[in-house]
Design goal:
Strand order of the largest sheet: 2-1-3-4
Largest sheet: 4 strands, mixed
Number of helices: 11
Radius of gyration: 17 Å
Order of helices and strands: EHEHEEHHHHHHHHH
Structural class: alpha+beta
Distance between the termini: 50 Å
């Protein structure tokens, strides 16, 4: 059976980083195509005609869209090793809950954090830190959100590790100071080969994407 895997992505995308980590955890070989989100390719428009966005995983010609949905697909199709979701139904439901929380209370605020100013920035920063503190409460004293094993929630949140430098610089705060357990968890994530090889350098995100974007659009 053919097993061709293609990832349509955009290099600074946290959502795309999730997919890269999951594929690395599973040891899946794939081709990555970096998209121009201003002039979207015909392949992207064909594979994701509804949202016209990345990431899209194309498996044997069939597209799977939305990052958390892609993670679950990867875990179900390549289920021989490195399971991301726990086997217990309740624990699986809890993992999905926290991944959804990450989307709404962390990832959903990233762009606003590095673009906002003044009172708006302070309000977004407060909301973002509150979200991290909630996640820190869930992490507790565990090594990973999944306990001793790096799992679904860890993959969902790990891409923020490459964005923390940008957010701390733009919003003038320290993740380590505000949420030390999240800070320690981030360091453990960076030590994993699947994470280190899947995330761009934090300084590259700031210099090559955020700073250039602000220059181009005068923000």
């Amino acid at each position: 059976m053919e097993n061709k895997v293609v990832l349509l992505n955009f290099w600074p995308s946290s959502y795309g980083m999730r997919v890269r980590i999951a594929l690395a955890e599973k040891g899946i070989k794939y081709e990555e195509k970096d998209e121009n989100l201003v002039e979207k390719s015909s392949l992207l428009l064909e594979m994701n005609p509804v949202h016209k966005s990345i990431p899209v995983l194309v498996h044997n010609g069939k597209p799977i869209c939305e990052s958390l949905n892609i993670l679950q697909y990867i875990d179900e199709v390549w289920n021989e090793n490195s399971p991301l979701l726990p086997s217990d139904p309740y624990e699986r439901a809890q993992a999905r809950f926290w991944a959804d929380f990450i989307d709404k209370k962390a990832f959903g605020l990233v762009r606003r954090l590095w673009l906002s100013k003044g009172e708006k920035l302070e309000a977004v920063k407060k909301e973002f830190i509150e979200g991290l503190k909630t996640l820190e409460g869930e992490l507790g004293d565990k090594i990973y959100f999944g306990g001793d094993k790096f799992g679904f929630v860890d993959v969902a949140l790990a891409p923020l590790a490459s964005w923390f430098y940008t957010l701390e610089t733009c919003a003038n705060f320290s993740v380590e100071a505000e949420c030390p357990k999240i800070g320690s968890w981030t360091k453990r994530c960076w030590e994993r080969e699947s994470v280190a090889n899947s995330l761009p350098n934090p300084h590259k995100i700031y210099a090559d994407w955020v700073v250039e974007h602000k220059k181009q659009f005068g923000e």
